[in-house]
Each structure stands twice: as structure tokens, then as C-alpha cells.
Fold this protein.
Amino acid sequence: MQEEFLLFINNISLYPTIIFTGLVLFVTLYWVVSLIGMADMDTIDIGDINADLGADVGGDTGGDVSSTGLFTGLLLKFGLYGVPLIVILTLISLIGWVLSYIYTSFLHQWLSSGPLYYAFGTGAFILVLVVSMWLTGIIISPIRKNIAKIPKRNAASNIGKIATVRTLTVTDKHGEAELSDGGAGLILKIRQFDEDTQPLKQGDAVVLIEYLQDANAYRVAPAKESIKSNQIL
């Protein structure tokens, strides 16, 4: 058993599997941090990727990488849009790790260290990455379609409602709150700006006072302060 474990550790530490091992550790840590409320689903964000891709899909690019930029074009080419970026990274990391581990275990061990070792490893990494992106696009395709069919709620209808902060802190760039809707509840992105005096923390009750369309988030205020203001008025 100990020898098998050591062999496993050795295989996941070899090139190119170690790259995917690092990615798996990163997304795992991210999900743990997110679950305890220290990060939200959109903390990992390279611009408004889903919005950009959505515009590209609706435009005349036809998936042309050169017309949309290399990174955005690749995501569009493989259908990697319409869901949170962390979900895409998680699937690519896990699929890539499994495929790369298989390569390392059954093929890469025949090569000794040297130019061929890294040449074959680099080729395998590129192939595994492409296959992982392709499979991830297939997996999220039905999810993306189902999300698109869900009727979008009018954001303005939530204004004035009270929600509960679920992240450890709330800033002008980060924060989430849970709003009870009579069902499973809604997880909303919230923001608090510098001029708001009382810092918010996990478990605080807040009032949704404004919808920030560009950020797809709500500006919030502490519920007690909002109630006091209404009583004074």
C-alpha cells in the first residue's frame, strides 16, 4: 500500500501531470474558500468573459479566433462560456489531470529525463489540454442551454428586500448574500462602497437598495440603518 501511494505521488509530480496537479489543487482550494464564504463565484474573472462571448456568439464572428482575440476566441471555439469561469477551470483541470496521469503512468515512464522526455511531455500536455477543453465544452453545453431557458427575474423586483451576507466581508468588488425566495434561496452578488460607514460581515442583514447593472450586483446597506432612516422620514 505504501509503495502504491509513493508511486501515485511520483506520477502526479512528473511533467506534464504536475501542471494539472497544481491546477486541481488551486481549484480545490478555491472551492473550499468559496464554501466558507471568503470568495464568491466571480472572484476569478478576466474581464466580463461571458458577456464578451455572448456578444461574439450573437455577432458575425463565426468562432473566428483572429477576430475576437486569441483567448476569447479559443473559449468561443470550444464552447467554454455561459457558466462561471471557475466551473470551466475545474472541469478542464480534472479532465486534464486524469488524462495526463494516464499518460504519465503508462507511457511517460518509458522515457528517461532528457530532451525527448520534455519534448514528448510538452506534446502530451498540449494534446491533453485541447482534449480537456473539448470535453469540457461538451459537458457544459446542456448546462448552458438550460441556464439560457430559465426566465430572468426583474432585478428591480428585489430592491428593498432583506438578504443575509454569506461572505466574510463585503467590499466594492466582492461580496455575496443569500435572499430567501420561498424556495432554495437566491445567491446574489452584493457591493458596499467606501461612503457606507458600517462595515458588513458574515451573517449581517442587509437591504438591497440599488441594482448595479454593469457589475450584475446589488448595492446594499445594513438593514438596521435602513429601517432607522425610514422611521425618521
